Amino acid sequence: MKTNNLKDPKDGLAGLKENFSSDAVSGFLVFLLALPLSLGIAKASEFPAIYGLITAMVGGILVSFFAGSKLTIKGPAAGLIVIVAGSVAELGQGDNDLGWKLALGAIVVAGAIQVLFGIFKLGKLSDFFPLSAVHGMLAAIGLIIISKQIHILVGASTSYSDGPLKGKSIVEPLELISKIPDTLAHFFQHQEVAIVGLVSLLIVFGWPRIKVGFLKKIPAPLVVLAVSIPLSMILGIHNIKEVLGENGEVITKAFNPLVSFDKGFFEILGINVSFDGLSQVGTFWKFVLMFALVGSLEALLTVKAIDMLDPYKRKSNYNKDLIAVGIGNIVAGALGGLPMISEVARSSANVANGGKTRWANFFHGVFILIFLIFAVAFSNLIPNAALAAMLIGVGFKLAHPKEFGHMAKIGWDQIVVFITTIVVTLATDLLVGIGAGILVKIIIHLLNGAPLKNMFSAKAKIEGNTITVEGAAVFSNLIGIKKQIAKFDFNQNVTFDVTKCKLIDHTVIENLYHIKDDFENEGGSFTILGIDEFKPATGSSHKFAAVKK
To answer: Of the four listed, 143, 172, 189, 461, which is most buried by Cβ atoms within 10 Å?
Structure first.
């Protein structure tokens, strides 16, 4: 039995009746956080802003009934901005409206693949990726988000000003980064926008530092909206349409510092997806693969993280959750929405606000739906600079300087893989970046004496209640190791014998200690035999650092 002695909340309709008040309140508070972030993520992804809310609505109202996790909130995520914006740019070839519709086709196909991932029980594949490469991928995404939003924060253009690509959006991260000095040099070219952006940024970073109890419960993004909307009115910020002369010359350039909802909820309902992108075979399938792999990986990592925060210590069904997210992506993509995942910030807020069952996610979706119905009333009120400030805050969390220090503390191998993944991702794309991180990790393991024959196949056998592993226990054979451990119930007493191993890497060690906690939470035990015989493999004495003999 569980050591926390808490009785699990009921599920289904009985759970709705039992936990109505706590789940409804948490769902409303999560809605307040999800609303501005969903709009900002959609804008940053080159999607019409309102369709970010479509994804959040589908993730709440529909997906909550199929989900394999009780506490996660489904919706659009900052971690996929880079892929979504890239798909719009590459598939549309400069036409964002066309690119959006073609990207939807890739999202729908990726959703179908995610359903197959779940059916064929491939949720365990998340264990294949080394943690340092995953953190590097997320940090790179954070830097890319910041590199674009810092321009929008002050009203600067993120398009090419001349040459054959004039007028088209800049999507390459290194180009966006190289443009930052020029943007800073013209910081107050649109001073009203810059003022709103700076005030919003101060709130994003300053509000969490406030120690007053009831104020801490108000999400910073909501405060940003509450301040930035009236401030933009006072400063007279408004959208300007392009004005052409008699000869077609541009007299007044278009400038749109405010979010515009051109259509209301009932007007946007309908199928928007286009599969014409299949004619661009290589590009289309590249983004399908990225949506399916990166989206699934982020979704699974969030579920794992939230399971650790769950006060009831419930274990999610990863494969069932993948199927649910896949169904959600098919529906959201068909309606024009962004891809969804189990989003970590909103899910963490759900736990912190007292959400107990899947109904909290459902209520969050219902409140999003109610806002959608009245969304047109907010058209031309929300400043893009405010949304940019929120996303800079998200990007900063993903690429926080502490991440670099944490990786270095665990071992030089971690920081090498971490930085390699970041640099290659910035220079190429996410798939190549995480692939480079994996390759570097494998090379380091081989240099540390890991037998090549054990790199992808764990040599593990079971005798009684003892699992013996030989050769190497590393990220690339962790799936096989966990398969052996899964043959035991968490209430049993199990010994994991590593005395015949030559190398155990960081990913495996961290997973083993989490598994040890799982056994102890259920009244069993998980003893790692022989771990004290190893020495640091990368010069670090950290508890989770790689070790070798």
So the answer is: 143
